[in-house]
Amino acid sequence: MYRGGAVNFLRQDMELVKITVLAKELGISHKTIYNWISDGRLKMEVRGYVDRLEAWAVHEHMQARKISFQRLMAKYGTERDKYGRFVQKKKDSE
Questions:
Q1: What are the residue boundaries of the structural domains of the chain, listed by start?
Q2: Mean pLDDT across the chain, nearest whole number?
Q3: Is the distance from CB of 62 to CB of 73 less than 8 angstroms?
């Protein structure tokens, strides 16, 4: 836990972890974590550090959204091409 003098206002149960370390832990880019911060999904209480538990919760939420979106696209017959663009699946012709 970060024990700097500027963190007296933080929750007692908060475990601050460096963003780059957390990115490796979650298997994502540190830029993704900074995007979550800029989107307001995650708070950076101390420069370069975030709460580990809060970050894991955001990660789980984003994973669930990703899976739901993929299922929705599959339901309507949409897939991605080799460039990552959405395209309609080709129907088998008889």
A1: 5-87
A2: 79
A3: no
